[in-house]
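Hey,
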Amino acid sequence: MRGVRGATTVSRNDAGEIAERTRELIRLVVESNGIRPDDIASAVFTVTEDLDAAFPAVAARGFSEWKDIPLLCVREIPVPGSLGHCIRILIHWNTDRPQAEIRHVFLRGARHLRPEWAVRVPGDEEEEAVRLSGEESSP
């Protein structure tokens, strides 16, 4: 089993945008790795505390092949100064593929979290990063 990570951001706390960006993230993670839904053991979504308009798991269930996959949504630790408006996913994938061959996908404002896993998508250069309120976090 391998863990496959991904993250993206939204510009505002809007149910439609959360769903759209969640589906975009899932599509890119799945396509980048050739993941078959039957091989997914489960997936965990996290959102930052400034996102509460929709559950990312509901968007995932919009893919008919994801309806039987166990999904869970949780909230990220609200570290002051950390990236806000962020949706993350951890897919537990039943595969024999070596860890070095796993392709993680970080989109939009989340590209800065893991530059080595960054993937560019149209329009992402137009988005400003949102930070959670409070003092800046230390690296």
